[in-house]
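Why does residue order matter? Because the sequence determines the fold. Keep that principle in mind as you read this record.
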Amino acid sequence: MDEREPVTVLKLMEKTGLSRGFFYKNPTVRKELDRAFEQQAGMSNPKKKILDMAMNHEIQALLRQLREVQQDNEKLMKENETLKKALERKNRELICSL
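Structure:
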């Protein structure tokens, strides 16, 4: 197999003619297979990098949007509190004028 080609049991089966069970049930082979999978996990995958960049961009956009919504919510809560106090004052004035 090419060094840049990802290791998979299916590809190993095709190349060697051995069964899937051989790769999973043989402890020595399984250990080497797991080691290859671990090494492979650290390899660079261009599609994954592009997807990660796109997802990070999306996350940043959503975080900005969340901050804006939180700020708007805070302003509205303050405005609501101010209006409640004004309404209470008007109600007290109305009651006193009766």
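The CA atoms of residues 4 and 43 lie 9 Å apart.
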